[in-house]
Amino acid sequence: MLEATSPSPTRFIVVAACVVVAVVVFAMYPSQIVPMDPYQAALLDVQRKNHKQDYAEAAKAILQILPLHPQDAELRYQLAVAYRGMGQMDYAATQYLAAISLDANHKGALYDLGYYYASQGQLSGAESMLARLQRMCAAGMACAERDTLSAAVNQLRLRQNYQKPSP
Fold it and tell me: What does the longest C-alpha to C-alpha distance in the chain come to?
């Protein structure tokens, strides 16, 4: 049979001590708890929309905040991703170039633009983006963007060499 037990005095003291410590810590560090910057919140929202493949909504959101941050490479990159997702590759390429002009080391933009060039058969453009990624990524270190674009460029080289007429 179950008997009713009263809480032990030790348990009460431990719980009370934990509450006091939590209140003291919270009171000492209120400045550590800050709301997210509106720009950062908007960028995070855009990244989520692109990740969920809601490209039209992502582009719409970016176009609303871009006038406030026209020199932001990440916004330009996210806009390029949205345009690419909507199949508007000319607009995407323009935004990739804008992102790269603002941040010459933007791996995502270099990779995506290089891959776009490779898909269009533009070997020199793809090689140029690959060369920039190779300079950025240390030799022997993992760099998915460099490695994937390198494979695409090599495939393009093979296709173009295969298609050349024999002399």
Answer: 99
